[in-house]
Design a protein that fits this description.
Nucleotide Exchange Factor Grpe, Chain A, domain 2; 3-stranded mixed beta sheet; alpha+beta
């Protein structure tokens, strides 16, 4: 038998039923092991289950319709953005072309003035044309245009286009022998390659030096 000092307990007798409570002798608190379990987690699970049961086909359909409306709205916004960018690019191109034409109009005016004196043999016409050519080149240079005139230079397929092979030119093979049309660049972009003739070594004569048989 256990000593009553080790296991103190209070006993209530009511109508033949005995209720026993174990009490810690030092603190007087009922141990947690015999306390009733908490029901908070169980209540949360019931609430979640009830909420899921309330979400029926109508709720899912409403959510799907909301997502579809958002998608169509974003699609429309992107299409408007694309159209606005295309419109702005077109306006920029037109503005650039207009500025370039404005720069060339003084050159055209001087050409017309020079043609008025085309029959003058004093040399004024030639001098006027030379001045117009310089004015035109100055205008193009301001736009970043530069010429490619590769006479006597090594052929470069990146900026030159060979239109003829030249034999016995006195130049090393692969050298530009003449320029048919100058090329042009604008900034780092090639506008037109230079059309050139390229020197090459003729094939060796295979005929025997001793002549025929």
């Amino acid at each position: 038998m256990h000593d009553e000092k080790d296991f103190p307990m209070d006993a209530d007798i009511d109508d033949g039923e005995i209720e026993i409570e174990f009490i810690d002798q030092e603190t007087g608190v009922i141990p947690a092991a015999v306390q009733p379990p908490e029901t908070e987690a169980t209540d949360e699970a019931l609430v979640t289950e009830e909420t899921s049961e309330r979400e029926g086909p109508d709720d899912l359909k409403s959510e799907l319709e909301h997502v579809r409306e958002m998608y169509l709205r974003k699609l429309a916004e992107f299409d408007n953005f694309r159209k606005r960018v295309d419109r702005e690019r077109g306006e920029d191109r037109r503005a650039g072309a207009e500025e370039f034409v404005k720069d060339l109009l003084p050159v055209l005016d001087n050409f017309e003035r020079a043609l008025e004196h085309a029959g003058d043999d004093s040399g004024a016409f030639q001098k006027g044309v030379e001045m117009i050519a310089k004015q035109l080149w100055d205008t193009l240079a301001r736009r970043g245009v530069a010429e490619i005139n590769p006479a006597d230079e090594t052929f470069d397929p990146e900026v030159h286009e060979a239109v003829q092979r030249v034999e016995d030119s006195g130049l090393p093979a692969g050298t530009v022998a003449f320029v048919m049309l100058k090329g042009y660049t604008m900034g780092e972009r090639l506008i037109r390659p230079a059309l050139v003739g390229v020197a090459f070594d003729p094939p060796a004569d295979d005929t025997d030096e001793g002549g025929g048989p």
